[in-house]
Amino acid sequence: MVIRMVKKIDCMIAGAQKAGTTSLLRYLGEHPECASHPQKEFAFFLEPSEYAKGYAGAFGKYFNFSKVDEKSIIIAKSATLYTNEAAIKRLHEHNPDCKLILILRNPSERAYSSYLMERNYGSIHYEFNKIIPILQKKKGWEYELFINFGLYEKHLLQIYKYFPKEQVQVILFDEVKQDVEKVCKTIFASLNVDTVFVPNLKVKHNVTQQVRSKTYALAVRKLLQKRSLVRRVISIFVSSHKFYKFGNAIRGLNKTNHPHNPMDAKTYNTLAEFYAPYNSSLSKLIGKDLSHWNKFKD
Fold first, then answer.
1. Which band of pLDDT confidence, cut at 50, 70 and 90, is reported for residue 26?
2. Which of these, 47, 90, 122, 262, has the minimum number of CB atoms within 10 Å of its CB?
3. Domains of the chain: residue spans and CATH
C-alpha cells in the first residue's frame, strides 16, 4: 500500500475574479520548489459539500502527488474566496500561517470582464449597459458577481479579521501587466524559494475572447454543469483535472482570436462614479494610489 503525502495550503491566491489569478497560479506553479493544482479553481473551502468530505480527499483530487514532497510549497487558487467569510474562516482553521495573495483590478473593468465571461458561457444575453438597473437594485446574483465583487475594501477587512496584514499580499492588476516577472519574484521571496527562477510568462491563461456561437456556448455550459447526466457519467471514469482539461478543450473550440469591444464610456463613467468613494477608502487601507481607477472616459 502506497501512503501518499498530504500537505496543507501554504499560499492561497484568494482573488479577485478576472484579475489574472489563473495566469499567476500557472506561473507560480512552474517553480520547482512549488506545487499547484491543474484545475482553474480550488473549490474545497467554498463548497460545503466538498469541505464536508475532508481535506485529504480534496488534496488527492486537486494535486498531483508525484510532484509533491515534504519540502514543496503548496499553492492554490480560489478567485472568489475573498468574498466569502465562511471560506476564509475555513482556510484559517486549515492553516492560520497561510499566505494570501489578492490581485485587485479596476472594479469597473473587472465588472465588464466578468460580464463578458458570463455572456460567453451563455448565462446572460443582454448588453452591458443594462447593468445600471442592477447597480441600483443592489440585489441578485448579477449584482453580487458584477458589482459586489469589486467592493474590495469590505472584503479585505473581512480577510483581516482572520489573517494579519503581513500575511496578505495585495497586488494591483496594473502591476501584473507592467512587470509580471517582478511580481512573481516578489511572491517567490515571500515564500522563501529561489527568486532566480523565471516561469514562462509569454503564455496568458483564461483570457476572455469572443465566441463563435452563443448556442454552442449555452450547450457546453449545460453539458459541464455539475448536475448534468453527461458530467456525472464522465466523472466516474476520469479524474477531476482531466475533466477540467476536457471542458477547456471543448470551450476552446468556440473561441475566436478576437478580443471583445471595450465598454461604452457612459456605462464606464457610471460605474467609476459609483466605485470612487470605495476606491478612495481602499487606497488608504492598502497604501497604494488608485486615483487612475476613478478617471472618467470621454
1. very high
2. 262
3. 11-208+260-288 (3.40.50.300)
